[in-house]
Amino acid sequence: MSDLLQIFGFTWMLVSALIGLYLGVKHLGVAERLEALANTGQLAEYHHLHTAFRWTVTVHAHGFLFSVVCVLVSVVLPRLALAPMVVNAVGIGLMVSTVIWTSAALARFRPMMGLADVGFLVAIATTAIGLGRAFS
Q: Quick check: 26 and 94 in contact, CB under 8 A?
């Protein structure tokens, strides 16, 4: 599971980097449009465009963060004092929750994002418990 989680983590970094590349390409146009909206006093449209752009920035940042956590957990996974089935569940939980969270965030479907967050947190908490048991 450790190897698979590392492969997934680095692959999802690539996905997040592509989202970042997309944002970089769009940034100048969005900035110019925001300036034009500000200059003409179109506050509602300004906030709508700004929020939409920032939302995608959040998806990019969280996707990268989740990827880094996956790689970090993959390093300690063999040391967890947990049953093999639980260790596998941690890895699968991290991968599944990362994909679900990113997909749900791109679709702005917050209930699914929340469920993915809970799954991710459970996997991290289980990792912490497994490490605590290994060192005690």
A: no
Burial 39-70 (b: 16+ CB within 10 A, else e): eeeeeeebeeeeeebeebeebbebbbebbebb
C-beta separation of 61 from 86 below 8 A: no
pTM score, whole prediction: 0.90
Residue 108, SS3 per DSSP: coil
Q: Over the stretch 93-122, which tens digit does the pLDDT of each residue have?
A: 999 999 999 999 999 999 999 999 999 999
Q: Which two tokens stand for residue 99?
A: 């994909």
Q: Any idea how long the chain is? A: 136
Determine how many CB atoms are found less than 10 A away from the CB of residue 125: 11
